[in-house]
Structure formats: C-alpha cells, structure tokens
Amino acid sequence: MIRRVFSIIFISIFLLTAISSSAQTKSRTGGVLAATPPMGWMSWNYFADKINEKDLREMADAMVSSGMLKAGYEYLFIDDGWQGGRDNRNNIIADPAKFPSGMKAFADYVHSKGLKLGIYSDAAQLTCAGYTGSLHFEEQDARTFAQWGIDYLKYDYCGAPADSATAVARYKSMGDALHKSGRDIVLGICEWGDRKPWHWGAESGGQLWRTTADVRDKWKSTKQVGAAKELHGVGAGILDIVDINGGLSKYAGPGAWNDMDMLVVGLYGRKGPSGDLGGVGCTDTEYQSQMSLWSMLASPLAASNDIRKMNAVTKRILLNEEVIAISQDALGKQAERKINDEEWSVFVKPLSNGDYAVAILNRSDKTKNYSVNWAKLGLTDQYVIRDVWQHQLIGKGRRWRGRVLSHETRVFRLKKV
Ligand code: GLA
After folding, report:
1. Do 297 and 347 form a contact (C-beta atoms < 8 A)?
2. CA-CA distance, 227 to 232, in Å (whole number)?
3. Which of 72, 117, 337, 399 is least surrounded by CB atoms within 10 angstroms?
C-alpha cells in the first residue's frame, strides 16, 4: 500500500514536471527560447505578399545601417507570399521568381548581417493569402526550415477548422516538428486570439501567440468591442489591442508572450493590409503610445514600416533604447493594468533590478493633467522618477502630477530612493 502511494506521488511529480518544463522550451544552448519578447521587422504591412529577395536584402541592409539591429531588432520576419509550392518530393520551395537565389542563400545573407530569419506558414493546406501551407507536411517542412537556417516560424490559421481542439492539435504538431528539426526555431502562433491561445500556446510548443485580429494603422475601432473576436470585421486599432492585452498579464513570461501584432509606427496610413478597415494612419503621439504600450505589455516588437527611409520621429520612436530596455527586461513580466477608466489607463511593470516602469495613457481626446500617488499602484516607497521619452530625471517622491497629451503615453522608470 505504502509503495503504491509512493509510486502515485512519484508519477504525479513526474507528470507535473513534464508539463511545466514543456511550457518553456529550452533552447539548444540551455537557455529559454525567446527569453525576452522577439524583436524585428516584418514584411506584411509594407509589402503584403509582393515580396522578393532584392527588396528584402535591402531591408536586411537597412536593419543594420539604421541602427535597428543594434537596438535589438534582430529578426527579419518574412510573412506570407514567399512560397512557390512543392517540388516532386513534396519539399516546400520558395517562389523562384521572387527568390531566384533560393531561401537558403537568402538565409545565409541575412545571417551574414548578424540578423536572424523568420518565415511564415499556415496550419492548413493554404495560407491566408492562398499560398502553400504546412498541414500534413509539418515534419518535412520543419526539416526544410532547419536546413535553410530559419530561426522563427509565424504559423497562421486561415483555412483551418474553428474548434479549439483542432487548433491545439495542429499547433502541437508543428511545435513538435520544430522541436525535432535539430534547430532552435521559435514558434509564433497566429490564430488571432479566437481560441484563447494564452491557455494552451506554450504547451503546444509556441513561445508567443497573437491575441487579436490583425492590427490596423489606426488608434481605435469606431465600434465598442468586448471580445477579441469582434475585432475581425471592424479592424483592430492600437487601443483595442491594448484593452484586450491589458487583462492577460498573468499568462506572459520568458518564452511565453502575448503577441499584440506588428508595430504600425511610421506607416502613416500606407495603403495595404494595415490600411484597410479604417487604417488611415496615426499621429506620431499615437505611434509613441504604441511603442510604449507594446513594450510595457511585453509584446514582441515587429516594426513593419519602410526602414530604408524613416523620418526622424519614427527613428526616435523605434530606437528609444530606454523603452526597449523595458520591453527586453530579463524578468519578463508583462505590465499589470492598475487603473482603467474612461480617460486613463495606468500600467506597472516590475523590472529585474528592482525598478518599476509605469505607463500613463490618456485615452481621451483632450490634453489633460493627471495626478497619481504611487501607493495607489501598489508602489509604497519613495522613488526617483526618470522620464524615458525625455531621457531625464524629472523628480522624486511618492507621486507624480503632470500633463499628458491626448492619446499620449508617459512612461517613467521608478527607482526606490
Ligand atoms: C493573417 C495574419 C497576418 C498576415 C496575413 C498573411 O491575416 O494574421 O498577420 O500574416 O495572414 O496572409
């Protein structure tokens, strides 16, 4: 009897350990895969499926020359449209007209620049834009991706059944295939939050999961939305995505991120995927808010503007090293939403050195003054306050009071006195 009890306890401990360790895939070098939110540039909003190796090489070059790579944007994420079907052995191939040198050569080029390469597929026969997907070819495609030197896979869900069980199974099948491929390949789940992937994404082998419909280049949807799903028809604006992710903090951590979709910073209403459904463009203040809130909420940071020619404001927003330090902080906490009313949202993100990042968003259409006692946010000490957009210390004490522009996010780093 005692032996049976012991063996039941032993088996339970073993199963619990197995479940919790599968939730954080170890990299082949022993660390956590995607230990901080992945950063890079993604092709979709700028090029849609009209991609080719010449333009993408220019983007790789620009990631280096603009300072993006140095700031932490290390992935070049190729989105939909690269595929050219399968060869006579069913190996997936790049479209030879778009990638005449082949994907391996492109990956070599990207790696020679010190960048990593992301690619895209779908858990059905066809992708969202109608190209070849990976269903039933998971292991073969994962092996091909590994041979090419792919470092990241965005795995979409167009053309797949709506139920959760199928989604979990299909993502797990690709998660396992990538794991077996012999290379560290980060898996980004992209089923748009419809089946609450924050509950099952990590166990399926994903390191991040999109939480909403596609981001549009706009501040917010004109319709009040309650659930992520409702955003599909109306288009998700920056504020809509913040409001959904604000409630998901507890699901994030190293190797497990809520993906708020691409940054639209610097797109200025460009026609294309982010320009439809009311995507008329944002103000620079709104773009500054997106960068601030995506960093606070520990979302991946995937720029999607033309980084070959960025104006000074776009560069200032995307390359703000103090904001990026908050995004990439080793503790890997997603900020918690402490205040959320008609006019204000306030977030707090604990940082690895004991500091706190605090973000104050003015949701209203007017410039307003705001006053907050840190204790109201659970921060009960005295702090030195650094404004990470102004790059300077702005005060010391138990509170802050000041002006916030309409749709602006003030971000402070608080250090205990
Ligand atoms: C879906 C995804 C987008 C993009 C397109 C490509 O809509 O959510 O991010 O990858 O497919 O077709």
Report:
1. yes
2. 10
3. 399
pLDDT digits (tens, 9 = 90+) for 372-405: 999 999 999 999 999 999 999 999 999 999 999 9
Token digits for 188? Answer: 């980004």
Instruction: Give Cβ neighbours of residue 158 (< 8 Å, ≥ 6 apart).
Output: 122, 124, 126, 127, 128
Residue labelled with tokens 């977030």: 347
Give the residue whose CA is nearest to atom 11 of ligand 1: 128
- Kindly report the pTM of this predicted structure: 0.94
Residues at CB less than 6 angstroms from ligand 1: 44, 79-80, 127-129, 156, 190, 192, 214
DSSP sequence for 82-126: -EEEE-TT--EEE-TTT-TT-HHHHHHHHHHTT-EEEEEEESSSB
- Shortest CA distance to 96 belongs to which of 108, 85, 111, 109? 85
For residue 204, the 8-state DSSP code is: T
Over the stretch 200-213, which tens digit does the pLDDT of each residue have? 999 999 999 999 99
Look at residues 265, 260, 231 and name the one whose alpha carbon lies nearest to residue 246.
260
**Cα separation of 333 and 331, whole Å?**
6
CA of 23 to the centre of ligand 1 (A): 25
> Which atom of ligand 1 lies closest to the CA of 262?
9
Of 139, 151, 152, 136, nearest to 180 by C-alpha is 139
Query: Residue 213 contacts by C-beta under 8 Å, 6 or more apart in sequence?
Result: 192, 193, 228, 229, 231, 232, 235, 236
